[in-house]
Structure formats: C-alpha cells, structure tokens
Amino acid sequence: MKILLLIALIISFTGSAQCKEFPSLIFSGPPIAESVPLIAMSQNMRAWEQNFEVKFIPWHSPDMLRAMIVGRQIDAAIITTAAASTLLNKGIHGRIALLYESPVWIVSVKPGPDTLESLKGTLLFPFGPGEMPELFFKATTGNKANNLSIKHTSGALEAVNLLLAGKGDHAMLSEPTVSVAISRSIAKHSKGAPLLVRRVSMCKAWSRAFPGHTLAATSMTFFGEKSDSSKLVQNFRKTHKQACKWVRENPAKALALTKQKFPALAAQLNSGAVKEINIHTLSGKKAQDNALFFLSRINNISPAAIGGTMPKSDLFEVGQ
Fold it and tell me: Distance between CA atoms of 123 and 151, rounded to whole angstroms?
C-alpha cells in the first residue's frame, strides 16, 4: 500500500509540473537587426529563463503589418512610434514596451559632407509617399526646400538595386541593409557599379537638428489584453536584454536561427558585411519624452501620420 501511495504522489507531482503552462506570445518584426533578439526568444532551448513562449512572424510591408495587427494575428511587433500612435487613435489598444535608437543612414553613390543640406540629386525612400522614411526625413530637415528629387520604392532592397544601377544618388536605409549595400557595391564595382558610402547618420542628423533629443522613432509595441499586463511587459524587457546579450555573444547561432525563421533577413546578415548585431534600446522617462518629441515633429508635417492626435503617456510602458 505504501508503494502505491508513493507512486500516486510521484504521478501527481509530475502531472502538476507538466500542466504548468506559460503565456504564448506572437511577435513580428521587419528585416532589420532589431528582429534578431525576438527570433532568439522563439527557440526551444534557451540560455536564459523565460516565462513566456514566443512565435515569430516576419512582416515585409506596412500593409502586411497593419493587416496582422487589425486581424489580431500578433501580440506585439516592431513598429514606428508614429504607427503605434496611429493605432491607438484608431481604437486599437496598445502600449510601447521598448524604444530603439535604430541605425538609419543616407547611403550615397559618392562621398561628401555628412549633412542633409549637402545632398543633391535623387533620394530614394523605401515604401510610398507619406510613409515613415520620407516623413522622418522631412521632420529632420524641418520640411525645408532642398536640392533633391524624391523617388519611392517598394522596399529597401529595391532602393539598393536602383543605386547600383545608377538610377539614384542617395537612399535612406537601415541596418543590415546598409552594410549589405556597401558590400554589394564593392563586389560589383568592376562591372561599373558605384562604390556606395555611408554619407549621413540620421541619428546624428536628428541630434544636430534638435540638440538634447535622441531619436526614438522605432518601438516594440504590445497590443490588446497583453499590453495591459505590466508584469508581462516587464518580463519581456528583462528577457529581451538577455536575448540581445546572447545574440551579441553567439552570432553564428543567431544567424542559423534567423535563417530558419526569417530567411530574407538571414540572407542579408549572412553576406559577411555585418560584423556584429548590437541592439540599442531606450527606456525610462527620458526615452518617453524623446518619443513624444519625435511624434510632435511628425505631427507638424502630417497629423494623419500619427493618427490625428498626439498621444499621452498612457501609450508607453517603457520602464524606468
């Protein structure tokens, strides 16, 4: 009888352990370096404790992203702070969990001064008119007249191809596309392609235009009921920090995982042009203030781009 009771106890404890379930979260991100830590969180075997499970879905265009958010297919995504504001104003409940200082560059076919005022010729923007790349540029320059003609592309890779084909002088690009574009230009230079260079850092251009303000244009935003759980968001931030450290210290493993989950991003990272994946996050009251300042500059140009009304602090859960 004692043996039977012991077996019953063992089974009951084993069953309790097996029944313990963690929340399941679906994350989404575009083909930029900031997506890699989210992908790292989705692995089955992790080097850190994580009290939620993750599935990662790539997004490739603003329209695809909007459809997934409106259709409640994802719980959180890397989006612009302007998009987060727009969604809130349209009645889609959400809160910003993290802000990023993403490396954005004006890449050019020839070297020159690292100022926006010095640019001449044709500037290529990923996505269409009224989308964030162009609005961000206009906000940084104060929407002043310049010596540039604007051309929109379907995405960053098309912009790179147009530069290499001599059909543009500059393009606004994020990492890892910047490094890939420069690497491809070196490989194709013997066949007549221009040697592309990093011309203007948009983060530095923003700080020069608005002293004391860090660019906080990109966010990780949670949606729906998941965004109401401060504990869940805090756990995410803690885990995200550990995932970033793992990615930085294990680039080969991170690349192999990205190849499984996001082949388009992995193809860029696998080019050899990107030497390390270093994610710069922003948090606390100062980060929130910088994001609100960014939104105010976009609002001055196109109120519709942030949903028509400036958000309040309830948009943010960015920690202290």
Answer: 6
pLDDT value of position 20: 52
Residue 239 carries which DSSP code? H
DSSP 75-134: SEEEEEHHHHHHHHHTT--EEEEEEE---EEEEESS---SSGGG-EEEEEEEB-TTSHHH
207 vs 254: CA distance, rounded Å = 32
Please list the rounded mean pLDDT of every run of 10 residues in the chain (320 residues): 45 42 90 93 89 93 90 94 92 92 92 95 91 92 90 92 96 88 92 95 95 94 91 93 93 90 84 69 90 95 93 77
How high is the pLDDT of residue 3? 52
What is the DSSP pairing of strand 94-100 with strand 24-29? unpaired
Q: Which residues contact 153 (CB under 8 A, 6 or more apart)?
A: 124, 125, 126, 127, 159, 162, 171
Q: Tell me, letter by letter, the H, E, C secondary structure of 148-197.
A: EEEEEECCHHHHHHHHHCCCCCEEEEECCHHHHHHHHHHHHHHHCCCCCE
Place of tokens 């958000």: 311
